[in-house]
Amino acid sequence: MEGGLVLLGGGANGGGSGGSSGFSTNESAMSEASSYPAETELELGLGLSIGGPTGKINKASGRILTAKDFPVPRRASMNGGTPPSVTVSGTKRAADQSVSHDSGSPTATSQVVGWPPIRSYRMNSLVNNNQAKAPRAEEEHKGINEEEEEDKAIKDGSKLKKPNENLGHIGFIKVNMDGIRIGRKVNLNAHSSYHSLASALDNMFLRSAGAEKQQLTMPSKLLDGSSEFVLTYEDKEGDWMLVGDVPWMMFLTSVRRLRIMKTSEANGLAPRFHERNRTQRSKLI
Amino acid sequence: MLKKMAFSFPDEVLEHVFSFIQSDKDRNAVSMVCKSWYEIERWCRRKVFVGNCYAVSPRMVIRRFPEFRSIELKGKPHFADFNLVPDGWGGYVFPWIAEMAGAYPWLEEIRLKRMVVTDESLELIAKSFKNFKVLVLSSCEGFSTDGLAAIAASCKNLKELDLRDCEVDDLSAHWLSHFPETYTSLVSLNISCLGSDEASFSALERLVRRCTNLKTLRLNRAVPLDKIANILRHAPQLVEFGTGTYTADVRPDVYSDLAGVFSSCKELKSLSGFWDVIPDYLPAIYPVCSKLTSLNLSYATIQSPDLIKLVSHCPNLQRLLVLDYIEDSGLEVLASSCKDLQELRVFPSDPFGAEPNVSLTEQGLVAVSLGCPKLQSVLYFCRRMSNEALVTIARSRPNFTRFRLCIIEPKTADYLTLEPLDVGFGAIVQYCKDLRRLSLSGLLTDRVFEYIGTYAKKLEMLSVAFAGDSDLGLHHVLSGCESLRKLEIRDCPFGDKALLANAAKLETMRSLWMSSCAVSFAACKLLGQKMPRLNVEVIDERGPPDSRPENCPVDKLYIYRSIAGPRFDMPPFVWTMDEDSGLRLS
């Protein structure tokens, strides 16, 4: 680099960790935050400025902080020490890395929320692109171009992603619960089963603080009809169905949004619910 | 007396002079000259811009500017685009509409970004403002096509309805037919984000036919290719057009129809849409390519050879949005054909794939930087980068004003040397003296922040993720970047020290976002107590922060300056730290 730089801190050079790295949930980065005279630091920050690094008066900050003010930065780990994260909703890391993809190629980026920074609108469009190709392949009448595209795909060594491979990346969908004004969004991508989805929704809706929710019991069985609420979804055709009836992957391709409905209202839904009860009842007799 | 006569013009003269000053910054500067200029200016300000809807209250704005005609409001922080801000955080526009409805029957323009807009708000707009002309909703949510129907039905003078990347509840496509048959003033319509599986084609066609001043039309995905010709035929005067789906069975009659209408559009400068593109239909747009200045192919899943062919037909291109299918080879062609290029955005087609699916590397960006002398704004997603490439880019293109690089895998080092990319980004800030916006990625230590603090004096917005080693990094930025207005940070080991030491700086900025960092609850409380003009919001879905030890880091922190005080529309997972925060939470 041309032009000497005045290095303010002590050896603050990070090491190279060489290529892609996973995420560590180590605790050491945390301890920096704990014990130091917070009050005095703040007073200094608000004090009159003396001069900035370039010699000009820097109105925004206080005195020049030197190496003495900062402990030698700890290189928490080779991976740079990301602080631990305890997450509940919108799972930070995929609940299950072993998602039941039809593909088989594992994803390199663990499914961190909001990374890479692509708007959900665009993300969903990417998903739609890949999903759209799948049903098209099933159509009876194939346009000439589809055959050409498939040919190209095979020739180029599948440069175009094969339709099945990206079905998992469906992204965020809306969830509303009866009686709660504000809806939420859940990342279906981060779940590999109904069970994991249901517990995420439990955490999201039924455990947070708030007067509205205090009267609810603690149903953790959204799926088997034993609680006051039942989990339903709207499919691509606009019909409301009970969650849990179809295989998980099929559910992913057809779900548009979710609704946590009062069990009493769910009676009009998916006839299978009644049939199941009827058969169960008949079995008991 | 003498002083007054010597130095003042009559108010009317000043007002006339001020009317030539449109930019907010300049207007704000004018109002600070003296009391009388403040008074005159506030009465003649016609456009108000509020960068953070919680920084000021609607009543305050109305009190100060009694006669504005146009308002622009922004709500949620930028990271809301990537789902980092939980639903329900806030940004409701209704209170603003309600206040303005009472005070301002002559309001003409409303522009909103990242706000929650309900059907109720839209209905209130339709009812209250008789001369309403412009509604631009950018990344907004909370409304349905019912609200749009209300606008269509009542706003007789509507000129612009622009829905950009909004989440709209598609209840019915028939909202379009609510535009009365007598309505003809539409100039710009953007419904590209609507999803309706069935679109009201006949209503759309009739609307286009009778609005002869229509200049911008961006259709949504539901409009099939064979309908486009019919629509375009009635609007040869269009300047900006967004297609719907660009796919169909290849039929010569559809193709020639399309080619025909495109050749009759002599004013067309901007094209977008192109969902599900079939390459065979692309040549239909060749007649307009030579005049195109803006092309958005970021939803077009076509491969490099087709993209190259298309791009080489567009020598006057100034703005290109494209998927990484264009590859390095395509970008090289772009660099040699489009010498007027100013803005380039390359999006990833498969961001979650383990292996790269296309051959797009740092070389593409280098080629464009070397070849396009006017390039000033870049958003580039790729999988590898080197310091060498960044230095080359910086040296050859010092006129960058916006440089956003996203290396898809966090903490990726220089692939040639395995070192951090500090030096590369350092070169960017050192050479590009007018850089206003920067997004970092890759493996970065505190050093890069030192470079930024030292050189990036015009930087207004900085986005940081998975970078840095210690508080020193944050301190460099807060103490060095004089023009900084917005800082957003995620997953960095920045804690209390730098934040508290630079507390005063925060009042000179619009906002600071920090998520998954190491700022403790204690520090948040302290900031809230000591800085009454900052709203310090702790966003934590794990439950109340005081149910954990004080030195526990908070999940998300959003700090913004405000003269409106703490807000009261917060959901259960947001807490504002203020003077009494110590008392209130216990």
Automatic annotation (TrEMBL), chain A:
Residue intervals of the PB1 domain: 170-263
Pfam families, per database record: AUX_IAA (PF02309)
Biased composition (Basic and acidic residues): 135-145
GO annotation, cellular component aspect: nucleus
Any one GO biological process: auxin-activated signaling pathway
Region (Disordered): 1-36, 70-113, 131-160
Keywords: Auxin signaling pathway, Nucleus, Repressor, Transcription, Transcription regulation
Primary residence: nucleus
Compositional bias of kind Polar residues: 23-34, 79-90, 97-112
Superkingdom classification of source: Eukaryota
InterPro entries reported in the protein's UniProt record: AUX/IAA_dom (IPR033389), AUX_IAA (IPR003311), PB1-like (IPR053793)
Intracellular or extracellular location(s): Nucleus
Gly residues: bias regions: 1-21
SUBUNIT field: Homodimers and heterodimers.
The family this protein is said to belong to: Belongs to the Aux/IAA family.
Function summary: Aux/IAA proteins are short-lived transcriptional factors that function as repressors of early auxin response genes at low auxin concentrations.
Protein name: Auxin-responsive protein
TrEMBL record, chain B:
Cellular location(s): Nucleus
Biological process according to GO: auxin-activated signaling pathway; pollen maturation; SCF-dependent proteasomal ubiquitin-dependent protein catabolic process
Listed Pfam families: F-box_5, LRR_6, Transp_inhibit
Alphabetical list of InterPro entries matching this protein: COI1_F-box, F-box-like_dom_sf, F-box_dom, Leu-rich_rpt, Leu-rich_rpt_Cys-con_subtyp, LRR_dom_sf, Transp_inhibit
Tagged with keyword Ion transport: no
Pathway the protein contributes to: Protein modification; protein ubiquitination
Any single Gene Ontology cellular-component annotation: nucleus
UniProtKB keywords: Auxin signaling pathway, Developmental protein, Nucleus, Ubl conjugation pathway
Positions of the F-box domain: 9-50
Keyword Nucleus recorded: yes
Highest taxon in the source lineage: Eukaryota
A single MF term (Gene Ontology): auxin binding
Main location: nucleus
Protein name: F-box domain-containing protein
